[in-house]
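User: Some background: our group keeps a shared notebook of sequences we're curious about, and every so often someone picks one and asks for a predicted structure to add to the entry. Today it's my turn. The entry only has the sequence so far, pasted here. Could you supply the structure so I can complete it?
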Amino acid sequence: MKKSKLFAALPDYVSTPDGMAIDPEGNLILACPNYADQTKPGCILKIDKDKNIRKWFDVPCRADTGLASPMGIAFGPDGDLYICDNQGWPGRPELLEKGRILRVRMQGDEIVKTTVVADGMEHPNGMRIRDGFIYVTQSSLPKVKHPSGKLVSCVYRFRLEDENVLVTNTLEDKNMLVTFVTENPDDQYGADGIEFDREGNLLVGNFGDGAVYKVTFNEDLSVKSCGVWAQDRENLESTDGMIMDGDGNLYIADFCVNAIVKILPDGTVTKLAQNGDTDGLNGELDQPGEPIIWNGKLIVSCFDTVCGGITVNSKHDPVATLAEIEL
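Assistant: Of course. Here's the predicted structure to add to the notebook entry:
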């Protein structure tokens, strides 16, 4: 296996790093929901090729909660940044169904326009943009009751130009694309990582089952099929963020066991890197949340917020980190 090393120790205004994207100038953009310390504003960082790190902007807060919690992010074709504002992740009752999809237009370092694409979401998490649509994983749908009693989650699809779509978190939502059931009784957490393969199929990670689903489409972009594409419980326990390289290899953050997994184009699951409980300061994987390929390396955000239970991490560490792995 490969060994990760430290890419960056993040400034003290970051407690929880998560989603990443690459801007049109080639800078690495990092979303920080800061769940481990919500006195720190949810913000977006910009990292240049020389590893200079700065806060780009604080994400506009929701008026009735005073919070913004950016997780998955993606750039639209016009350079606007789309953001999953996952307000409900901490589980506090007053934050449930307060999640949003935001579209932020920047001029330099100034926000010139913020649009609410969708509102009322329970748990928006990962995001990808393709062919005029935003695809968003929602990791739980508590209103949707499966006969087994197990958790249901889904993917929503919105148009880039949508505004103020009110989500009900039920099967009545016209923007709901596909649903999933998490079978693992010990980890009831659903759709999380999301990526497109080279053929335009949508890959979705069911976190608790450690499974990657493949969604295929008809010509009108309706769903043609949805089924498990890759699953290997010995090598992949949890599927958080994911990224595909140009050769069709999929890299996944195995959040629970501090690992990065590589899935080959034929669906074979291999372990790329792994370590035990750590503070990440020597570059170890400290609860990896999302990988991205940047300048020929795999950069990994270390979420480091969930302690005990299903995860090997025993505590939150005061310094947030990014790790890197040579490819």
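Suggested note for the entry: The chain has a mean pLDDT of 98. The two ends are 12 Å apart (CA to CA).
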